[in-house]
Amino acid sequence: MEEYKWLNNILNDDTEKITDKQKLIIRAAIELFSKQGYAATSTREIAQKAGVAEGSVFKLFPTKKDLILWIIKHIIKTSLFPLISSGINELMEKPFNSREDFLNAFFENRLELIQEGAPLFKILIQEIPFQPEIRAMLLEQFKKLPLDIIAKKLITTEINSDFNEIDIINIIITCLTGFFFSRIIMFPEIFPENRIKNDAAVLVRFMSRGFKSEKEQNL
C-alpha cells in the first residue's frame, strides 16, 4: 500500500503505541476494506494480507468491527479533520476580492486531501449507513469545524449576499460531500485525477455564480 500521509499519521501516533504486528494488520485491513468493503472482507484475508496468523488479528482486535472502528477513530483523529482544518485561520486573515477567490483558495488547500484520501473516504462513505458509531464520530468532529467563520467570510467578502450563514454552511457541506462521493465512490473512472483542479474550479465558479456567465453577473 502507498505511503499516504494520513496512513503514516495513524501508524506513528505518539498518543498510542502500536506494535509492528498491529501496523501490518491495520495496513492490510485499510487496503482490503477500501477495495472490497468491510462486509466482504474476512479476518482470514486480512491476516493473509498482513502475513500474520488469523489468531493474531483477534488477539489484537477482538472483532472485525473493533478493527474498523479503531481505524476510523484514528483516521478522524489524526488525519481527516486536521487536514480539513489546515490553513483555515490563515485564509480567514487574508483579504480576497471575491467569494470565488476565497473558495478557490479554500479548495486548493484541500485538493491533497481529496487526492491522497481515496481509500479513507471509501471506507468512511461505505460504512456510515451501517455503523452508527462512525456517524457519531464524524458528527462530533464536524461540530468543531469553524463553518460559521467560513460562512461569515463568504458573506462579508462581497457587499451583497442572498444567503444567510446556515444556507452557506449547507451549500458548502453538500457541494464538498458530493464532490468527494462522485469521484471516489460512484464514478472514479470518469473523473480522472488530472482533472481534479479544473473540476474544483468549475464547482467553485458554480457555487459563486450559479449558472450565470461572467457577463450576466456584471449586468
Could you give a quick summary of the protein structure above?
The protein is mainly α. 71% of the residues lie in helices and 0% in strands.
Describe this structure in words.
It is a single chain. Helices cover 71% and strands 0% of the residues. The chain is mainly alpha-helical and 219 residues long. It has one domain: Tetracycline Repressor, domain 2 (Orthogonal Bundle), CATH 1.10.357.10. α1 packs across α5 and α9 (118-127) packs across α12. The longest helix has 22 residues, at 64-85.
Which terms would index this structure?
71% helix; 14 helices; elongated
Secondary structure: elements and pairs:
Elements: H1 5-11, H2 20-36, H3 43-50, H4 54-60, H5 64-85, H6 88-93, H7 99-108, H8 111-116, H9 118-127, H10 132-142, H11 147-157, H12 165-186, H13 196-209, H14 214-217
Helix pairs in contact: 1-5, 2-3, 2-9, 3-4, 5-10, 7-13, 9-12, 11-12
Specify the helix fraction band. over 70%
Low-confidence stretches: none
- Which architecture does the CATH hierarchy give at level 2? Orthogonal Bundle
Look at the helices and sheets and give the structural class. mainly alpha
Principal-axes geometry comes out as elongated
- Biggest sheet record: none
